[in-house]
Amino acid sequence: MIKRLRSVCLILLVLSVVISSGCAAAEKSILLTFTGDCTLGSEEATRPREDSFDSLAASKGLDYFFDNFRTMFENDDQTVINFEGVLSDNKFQESRTKRYRFRGPTDFVKILTGSSIETCSLANNHIGDFGKQGEESTKATLDANNIGWFQNYKYYIYEKEGIKVAFIALENRTVYKEFEKIKKMITKLKETGEANAIVVCWHTGLEYRGAHETNTESTSQALIRYGADLVVITHPHVLQGIQVYNNRCIFYSMGNFVFGGNSAIRTEKFKIDQTVTSLYSMVVQVKLLFTNDGKYLGQLPVIYPVYTSSAAPVNNYQPYRANVEEAAAVRAAIQQDSSFELPEITADADGLSRMEMDYLAAFDGVGIPESEDDGPQGKPEASNPSPTRKTKGQ
User: What average pLDDT does the chain have?
Assistant: First the structure.
């Protein structure tokens, strides 16, 4: 009876806030764009090949790769990518125990600056491909070109008109071993006013699986309960679903984007999971809304269906926005792992597809943990443990 009464009260709370806090109440906004995994470089063995990322950079120019999205990226406040690999002019400390190691020369930073990409998440399993020198070279190169980066406890603050958004990037070792520290960091950012909103980019999940894991879901929800306003997940290299929790979005996997690590695009279904293909991707834009004095009001997400190459099964490393007909398959890939009906596909004036989600007004007091042991349980799920999730988004 108590639980039923609590549920009714929560529903009434949500309805009252949604009714009273519409988009029109917002005084300030910040528009964020997120993509899937980006690798700007090649493996040492494949670099000389004609179909390598480096070879196309030489023949097509550095503005080629993100060309289909440059206008979109120029018109937002922050474009955020998961940067898989390193920027270094030498191959010292190459981690030969790893199967795949990706490196681009430091000059490739112009791919980012020339495409209006302002921020990089570095908490992933390829930032260490060339040891400490590769990681330090990457960070120094980004710093020298005024590109923000964030990694575990080194968060990044973006400020616009007095509104501050904190970006936190997490790798699984940090999440599973130090979740209490993460919770305290998120809580402190909000309580001290250092951040008006918090975005968590988490590198986790099972590679080439079309459904997210139970543990990933429960941990993402815990991050939101402790103060995150948006959770964006990368690593599986294929699309997974979307969840709305406490009126905040969780994007379980964005797929690949400009991915120099693979010269071919797998257009057929993966044997490991017959529901997915690496041809499909998405770009997500989320407008965060605030009162004039900085109170977070809500978010307005838009999904842009994407194909990772226009030359598939060859990877030409130049993703493009899908038209309405092409977007149907992308929507289906996301829908199979989502717990709600996705918005219908609509077309821009130029015929390119988009899916506009409803405005999600902020509210507090829902889903507050009743115990101290919530968060990740067991072993990290990335990158190759046995899957535990049997159902979708439930």
Answer: 87
Beta bridge partners of 104: 87
Query: What's this model's pTM, rounded to 2 decimal places?
Result: 0.88
Sign of CA dihedral 320, 326, 331, 332: negative
Q: Which two tokens stand for residue 149?
A: 């980066």
pLDDT at residue number 16: 41
Q: What is Dmax (Cα atoms) for the chain? A: 69
Cα 288 to Cα 129: distance, rounded to the nearest angstrom: 35
* CA–CA dist 240, 251 (Å, integer): 8
Does 288 score more than 90 pLDDT?
A: yes
Distance from C-alpha of 133 to C-alpha of 106, rounded to nearest angstrom: 13
Give dist(CA 356, CA 94) in Å, integer: 43
CA distances from 60 to 86, 115, 237, 272 (A): 21, 15, 25, 35
Distances (CA, A) of 98 to 102, 105, 126: 10, 20, 9
C-alpha distances (whole Å) from 359 to each of 105, 210, 236, 348 are 42, 26, 28, 19
The residues, ordered by sequence, that sit 6+ positions from 184 with a Cβ below 8 Å of its Cβ are none
Spatial distance between the Cα atoms of 207 and 26, rounded to a whole number of angstroms: 39
Distance separating alpha carbons of residues 131 and 128, to the nearest angstrom = 5
Instruction: Please tell me which residue, 385 or 239, carries the higher pLDDT value.
Output: 239
Q: What are the Cα distances from residue 244, in Å, to 20, 274, 299, 341, 359?
A: 20, 26, 11, 11, 11
Tell how strand 280-290 and strand 360-361 pair up.
unpaired
